[in-house]
Amino acid sequence: MASTHNEFYALMLVVVVGSMVASCGANFNQDFDLTWGDHRAKIFNGGQLLSLSLDKVSGSGFQSKKEYLFGRIDMQLKLVAGNSAGTVTAYYLSSQGPTHDEIDFEFLGNVSGDPYILHTNVFTKGQGNREQQFYLWFDPTRNFHTYSIIWKPQHIIFLVDNIPIRVFKNAETIGVPFPKNQPMRIYSSLWNADDWATRGGLVKTDWSKAPFTAYYRNFKATEFSTSSSNSFSDAAWQSNELDAYGRRRLRWAQKYFMIYNYCNDLKRFPQGIPAECRR
Ligand SMILES: *[C@@H]1O[C@H](CO)[C@@H](O)[C@H](O)[C@H]1NC(C)=O
Question: Which residue from 144, 123, 141, 119 is spatially nearest to 132, judged by alpha carbons?
Answer without folding.
Answer: 119
